[in-house]
Design brief:
With 184 residues, the chain is mainly alpha-helical. The protein folds into two domains: 51 residues, Arc Repressor Mutant, subunit A (Orthogonal Bundle), CATH 1.10.10.60; 123 residues, Orthogonal Bundle (Tetracycline Repressor, domain 2). The chain contains nine helices and no strands. Helix 4 runs antiparallel to helix 5. The radius of gyration is 19 Å and the shape is elongated. The protein starts with a helix and ends in a 7-residue tail after the last helix.
Length: 184
């Protein structure tokens, strides 16, 4: 039983922050435990007290971010499994508040599995706003689904890297260009 949870949390945070600072610069396969502990100011034994390896740390951080988005979507969903435009904005706020992490995960050397999980998570909620696919389960439908999701997350990635416009403006841009509002 941990008798000093505040210190434990602080130690984890420093290790995680050290990891993210490195992950912004290079892929996870090139990050060593030594580099993380040097950034965090701890020894390797401290790292191994919390994580088995660098990949476990990455998986836990990815799961945490996906859980935040999943919770938002599940709490915001309606009977039709859609997400209100306001909730799309809240999802962008989550990504912006986790900008360092989200930018790294969505970057060229980010984890493709995270991007795939994020796409699958949001697709049912945003599909209603896109041009309806006649054959969503067909090969052509899957190509269009990937086109839409890659475009949306490519735009979000670019916005996170250089947010020259606000969230509301970004949403208006996305809605105006690739999404449609459901008919009332």
């Amino acid at each position: 039983m941990n008798k000093r949870p505040a210190i434990t949390e602080q130690t984890r945070k420093k290790l995680v922050d050290g990891f993210w600072s490195l992950y912004m610069e290079k892929p996870v396969s090139r990050i060593s435990v030594r580099e993380i502990t040097d950034c965090a100011g701890y020894n390797r034994a401290t790292f191994y007290h919390y994580y088995t390896d660098v990949y476990q740390l990455l998986q836990e951080e990815e799961a945490s971010l996906l859980r935040q988005i999943r919770d938002l979507l599940e709490n915001a969903g309606s009977d039709q499994n859609t997400i209100a435009i306001d909730n799309f904005g809240e999802m962008l706020v989550i990504l912006r508040n986790n900008n360092l992490y989200a930018s790294a995960l969505l970057s060229d050397h980010g984890d493709p599995a995270f991007v795939s999980s994020l796409k699958e998570l949001v697709w049912p909620y945003i599909n209603i706003y896109l041009v309806q696919l006649k054959y969503e389960d067909s090969y052509e439908g899957q190509l269009l689904k990937e086109y839409y999701l890659s475009g949306i997350f490519g735009t979000v990635r670019r916005w996170l890297a250089d947010p020259q416009i606000g969230i509301d403006e970004l949403i208006s841009l996305l809605i105006g260009q690739i999404m449609r509002l459901p008919e009332q």
